[in-house]
Design goal:
The chain has 107 residues and is mainly beta. The chain contains one helix and seven strands; from the N terminus they run H-E-E-E-E-E-E-E. A hairpin with a 4-residue loop joins strand 3 (59-63) and strand 4 (68-69). The longest helix has 15 residues, at 2-16. It is rod-shaped. The N and C termini lie far apart (92 Å).
Length: 107
């Protein structure tokens, strides 16, 4: 009988405790219109481009056709001219924001 009372008391103590939780806000997600991206060719008529993320507090993920990069500033040579689409994903405190940048490379 004593063992049963100790068992019930132990279970009751475990259930009665409040968990220790330190909840913190994740933060917000930057909107697509707040992104400060600069994508341009290094020379007129050239196929080398520079992609720069000037948005404070936002990490970068660039998909520039020939590869990917997580750097804030990337230089890449595209294999062909014409209209190109560069994809960008920004990593914020509260999640991700994605956008595309269209670039026309003419010779």
């Amino acid at each position: 009988m004593k063992n049963i009372a100790i068992g019930i008391l132990s279970i009751w103590l475990l259930v009665a405790c409040d968990p220790v939780v330190d909840n913190k806000e994740m933060g917000g997600v930057v909107s697509e219109s707040e992104l400060k991206l600069d994508v341009h060719a290094t020379t007129e008529g050239g196929n080398e481009i520079v992609m720069t993320n000037n948005t404070p507090g936002v990490g970068s993920y660039w998909d520039h056709i020939t590869g990917i990069s997580t750097k804030q500033t990337v230089t890449a040579a595209l294999p062909f001219l014409g209209e190109q689409t560069i994809k960008f994903i920004g990593f914020c405190d509260g999640g991700q924001v994605a956008t595309t940048v269209r670039l026309l490379l003419l010779r």
